Amino acid sequence: MTHFPTWSRRDAIRMAAWLTAAAGTPVAARSVVRKAARGGPALKGDAAFLDAVSQTMIPRTATPGAGDVHTGAFVAMALAHGLHGARQPLAADTTSAFRAYARPDGSLDHIAWLRGALDRRAAPSFLAATPARRHTALAALDAEAFAAGGDHHPWHVVKALILTGYYTSEAGGSQELRYEAVPGRYDPDLPVTPQTRAISNDWTAVDFG
Fold first, then answer.
1. Residue 183 resides in a domain
2. C-alpha–C-alpha distance, residues 156 and 83, integer Å
3. Which domain does 86 fall in, by range?
4. 84 dihedral zone (left: phi>0; alpha: psi -120 to 50; beta)
5. What single string gives the DSSP state of each residue in 100-147?
6. In this predicted model, which residue has the larger pLDDT, 179 or 102?
7. Segment 46-83, tens digit of pLDDT
8. Contact 154, 98 (CB under 8 A)
9. How many C-alpha atoms does 42 have within 13 Å on its Cβ side?
10. Torsional sign, CA 147, 124, 127, 30
């Protein structure tokens, strides 16, 4: 569903499956969102900013977008708790552009970094920019992260958590993906088209190869 050139819809669904399995169940993910909703003004402000980023990455189509389901609250809490290695100290060879956003413990403040990176690209402010300008700014950041040598780019962590948060939401897990409480018969060979939706409660159906 994401519109960035380095990720197809199929890539996003496949990655979401892997991340969800690593992070835990949808119930656990939603519990994190509820905790974020009870957080202070700073956390709520971060969640609102991340909702805007999430909605730009996975916009509303026939199904709700990632911001619509408040994925930002999940991402804010996940970063605070160090999911996906978010609280690990920066490597010694980390560039100054990232090190400028380091915390006293040596880890990267991903939200502060992301604000700075997107505000520069959508000057003067990502939140004040039009949807089209937001998309252009985020697409440029995405392209930078997935270019050669960008394996340790911090956008990888944030993007992975957005996918996890969205695809463990009710809309992501039962509307964007298909949810079948009782799967049907086994069919070993079925046609797969770009419109085919993976089954959210059967991770073997997510990897289309």
1. no
2. 12
3. 9-178
4. left
5. TTB-TTSBB-HHHHHHHHHHHHTTT-TTTS-HHHHHHHHHHHHHHHTS
6. 102
7. 999 999 999 999 999 989 999 999 999 999 999 999 99
8. yes
9. 4
10. positive
Residue 44: what pLDDT? 74
Q: Is residue 193 part of a domain?
A: no
Task: Write down the residue that tokens 């695809």 correspond to.
Answer: 167
Contact in structure between 3 and 136 (CB atoms under 8 Å): no
CA dihedral sign of residues 73, 96, 7, 209: negative
* Residue 198 belongs to some domain of the structure: no
Q: Rounded to an integer, what distance in angstroms lies between the CA atom of residue 66 and that of residue 127?
A: 16
Tell me which amino acid residue 168 is: T
Q: What is the pTM of this model?
A: 0.74
Which runs of E-coded beta strand occur in 20-121?
Answer: none
CB 112 within 8 A of CB 100: no
Residue 24's SS3 state is coil
In the block, which residue shows the tokens 């509820």?
34
C-alpha span between 80 and 22 (Å, rounded): 17
Q: Would you tell me how many other CB atoms lie within 10 Å of the CB of residue 102?
A: 16
Give the chain's domain count. 1
Q: How far apart are CA 105 and CA 120, in angstroms?
A: 26
Whole-number Å distance between alpha carbons of 4 and 59: 11
| Structural contact between residues 176 and 1, judged by C-beta atoms closer than 8 angstroms | yes
* Mean pLDDT along residues 11-38: 47
Give me 97's structure tokens. 């552009």
Evaluate whether residue 196 is within a structural domain. Answer: no
